[in-house]
Amino acid sequence: MKIKERRPLKKKQTKEKTVNRVLLGLIVFLLAVIVISSIFYLRSSRPAVQAKKEAVEIAKKYANLEEADHFYWFTRKKTYFSLTGTNDKGKEIAVIIPKSGEKVKVLDQTKGLTENEAKQTIAAAHPEIQIEKAALGMYDDQPVWEVVGKETNGKLNYYLIGFESGDEVKTIKGI
């Protein structure tokens, strides 16, 4: 009678070690990708975080801003940082701050369009576009909302509408 030979135990253990090493290597690689991605994300968002922090400090000083609801970064001819929120009297305000920090403009939010109203105004006038975002700033010494919309072909349109009037001030299409 013949005895069947079994595979040596060493081959099975070697295969398991190889699989474990591959899995460990894959886990280390994925962790490295996550850590590096997190570092890049944090570094890339640092300027916006710093700008918001400084804008809130200036708005508290010049407009008695109590609570900031939204922060906007607006760049046309000049760069502006804007906040909407409530002041120490509970009044809804919008604060537009030039990058220089001088000539802060404080607006009564009830006398102008909100972000959603600005988006709705453009959506109604241009139903063919998809609204991407809106930002509050100054253009030709006039407070405006910049509403960005995307065409079906992927090109962007920029609509500047008056904060108080809601009229289109300037349109840039097909970027």
UniProtKB/TrEMBL annotation:
High-level lineage: Bacteria, Bacillati, Bacillota, Bacilli, Lactobacillales
Transmembrane regions listed in the UniProt entry: 21-42
Signal peptide: none
Keywords: Membrane, Transmembrane, Transmembrane helix
Source organism per UniProt: Enterococcus faecium
rRNA-binding keyword on record: no
Domain of life from the UniProt record: Bacteria
The keyword Transmembrane is assigned to this record: yes
SUPFAM superfamilies from the UniProt entry: Cystatin/monellin
Domain Cell wall elongation regulator TseB-like residues, every copy: 54-98
The protein, known as: Peptidase
